[in-house]
């Protein structure tokens, strides 16, 4: 792929971890960062309202180790989005992303998320106001369309309009959102995936940076898509089988593959810090249940770091001891 046409903002988007409400919070992101030092991470969606009217620090605080980190915003009022970015500007985010892909009822009633694909003029106003608030990249995450929108002309029209307002980076979930009759979960599975449509957009709009999202779970296929597109964004696979992040990162950077034991020990040290600040172990381990997926000790790991951490919320040695045991099982398998 010819990257020379594009403005280089210095952010590597070859591997991105998708924004996921209730999942990609700061503890999860700390874990993902250890697994994939080169990935671009995203916050959960935070509404502009929450940042403007509530305690912004609650929504924006994070650990510096999470960088590079994109803040995903939800909203459709330009002035509020502008203010939200102003509030967020001292937190060191690498980019600000507008959610135009989420189909939940709650989001639709606030008139933002995927329903905005039908109203590109509003999105134009939003991204223009966002761009005025920052010199960091402003990007958009969207679907290939909604409801009965024509996926050819509809997506072209949408991206052309948004691009005319100065956005050149799009994360595209390669399926439509059906706004009536499907739950958000169904909307992530039922509308068929159409990678071809996203590939066509990337080909016909070489000046745009198009990152592919949706349904990517197989490591070899992901590597193929990373070569075909400028990057991929992984959601559920990153969460449920997190070690894939380490494998993809090591493959791309040619660095040595991270060791699960070292990751678990580093997370135990992180948990000690979080506990000192008033948190508990389970807040952290709930994001780590998939670390040993596919291995003999996977079930034991899930039980220990899931259940035992709940029963002994301040005993971070559970993580260390369980990791030690699970890794010894891997070595027995290899021997
Ligand atoms: C639990 C969960 C929460 C999500 N929350 C958000 C969100 O806050 N903002 C957003 O743009 N997409 C959200 N998504 C959608 C993902 O970012 C992603 O687009 C979708 O899961 C498809 O990618 P995948 O097949 O790799 O999971 C969420 C997905 C899940 C599973």
Verbal overview:
- This protein has helices at 26-35, 48-53, 56-60, 78-88, 105-109, 120-133, 153-164, 195-204, 219-228, 236-240, 243-253, 260-276, 281-285, 298-311, 317-334, and strands at 15-17, 40-47, 69-74, 95-100, 138-143, 169-173, 209-213, 231-234.
- It has 335 residues and is an alpha/beta fold.
- It folds into 2 domains: 15-253, TIM Barrel (Alpha-Beta Barrel); 260-334, Four Helix Bundle (Hemerythrin (Met), subunit A) (Up-down Bundle), CATH 1.20.120.
- Helix 4 (78-88) packs parallel to helix 6 (120-133), helix 12 packs antiparallel against helix 15 and helix 14 runs antiparallel to helix 15 (317-334).
- It is globular.
- The protein binds flavin mononucleotide.
- Flavin mononucleotide binds at residues 18-21, 23, 44-45, 72, 99, 101-102, 141, 173, 188, 213-216, 234-237.
List the helices and strands and how they pair.
Layout: E1 15-17, H1 26-35, E2 40-47, H2 48-53, H3 56-60, E3 69-74, H4 78-88, E4 95-100, H5 105-109, H6 120-133, E5 138-143, H7 153-164, E6 169-173, H8 195-204, E7 209-213, H9 219-228, E8 231-234, H10 236-240, H11 243-253, H12 260-276, H13 281-285, H14 298-311, H15 317-334
Helix pairs in contact: 4-6, 6-7, 12-15, 14-15
How many distinct beta strands?
8
Task: State the assembly state of the protein chains.
Answer: single chain
Number of domains: 2
Give the second-level CATH assignment, the architecture of the largest domain.
Alpha-Beta Barrel
Structural class: alpha/beta
Classify the fold: give the CATH topology of the largest domain: TIM Barrel
CATH class of the largest domain, please?
Alpha Beta
Q: Please outline the major beta sheet.
A: 8 strands, parallel, barrel
**What distance lies between the first and last C-alpha atoms, to the nearest angstrom?**
42 Å
Radius of gyration: 20 Å
Helical amount among residues, as a percent range?
Answer: 40-55%
Q: Bound compounds, please?
A: flavin mononucleotide
Number of helices: 15
The low-confidence parts are: none
CATH superfamily of the largest domain: Aldolase class I
Major sheet: order of its strands?
A: 1-2-3-4-5-6-7-8
General form: globular
Order of helices and strands: EHEHHEHEHHEHEHEHEHHHHHH
């Amino acid at each position: 792929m010819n990257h020379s046409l594009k403005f280089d903002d210095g952010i590597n988007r070859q591997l991105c971890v998708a924004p996921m409400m209730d999942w990609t919070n700061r503890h999860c992101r700390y874990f993902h960062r250890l697994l994939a030092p080169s990935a671009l991470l995203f916050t959960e969606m935070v509404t502009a309202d929450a940042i403007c009217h509530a305690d912004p620090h609650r929504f924006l605080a994070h650990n510096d180790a999470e960088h590079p980190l994109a803040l995903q915003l939800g909203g459709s009022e330009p002035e509020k989005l502008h203010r939200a970015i102003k509030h967020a500007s001292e937190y060191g985010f690498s980019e600000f992303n507008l959610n135009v892909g989420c189909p939940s009822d709650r989001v639709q009633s606030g008139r933002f998320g995927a329903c905005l694909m039908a109203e590109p003029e509003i999105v134009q106003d939003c991204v223009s106001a966002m761009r005025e608030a920052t010199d960091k990249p402003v990007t958009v995450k969207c679907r290939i369309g909604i409801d009965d929108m024509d996926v050819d002309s509809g997506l072209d029209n949408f991206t052309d309009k948004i691009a005319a307002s100065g956005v050149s980076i799009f994360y595209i979930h390669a399926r439509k959102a059906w706004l009536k009759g499907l739950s958000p979960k169904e909307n992530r599975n039922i509308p068929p995936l159409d990678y071809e449509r996203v590939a066509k957009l990337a080909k016909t709009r070489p000046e745009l940076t198009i990152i592919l999202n949706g349904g990517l779970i197989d490591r070899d296929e992901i590597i193929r898509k990373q070569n075909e597109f400028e990057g991929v964004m992984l959601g559920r696979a990153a969460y449920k089988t997190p070690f894939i992040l380490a494998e993809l990162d090591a493959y791309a950077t040619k660095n040595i593959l991270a060791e699960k034991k070292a990751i678990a020990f580093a997370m135990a040290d992180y948990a000690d810090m979080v506990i000192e600040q008033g948190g508990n172990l389970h807040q952290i381990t709930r994001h780590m249940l998939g670390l040993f997926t596919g291995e003999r000790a996977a079930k034991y790991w899930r039980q220990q770091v899931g259940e035992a951490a709940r029963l002994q919320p301040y005993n971070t040695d559970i993580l260390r001891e369980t990791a030690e045991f699970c890794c010894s099982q891997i070595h027995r398998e290899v021997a």
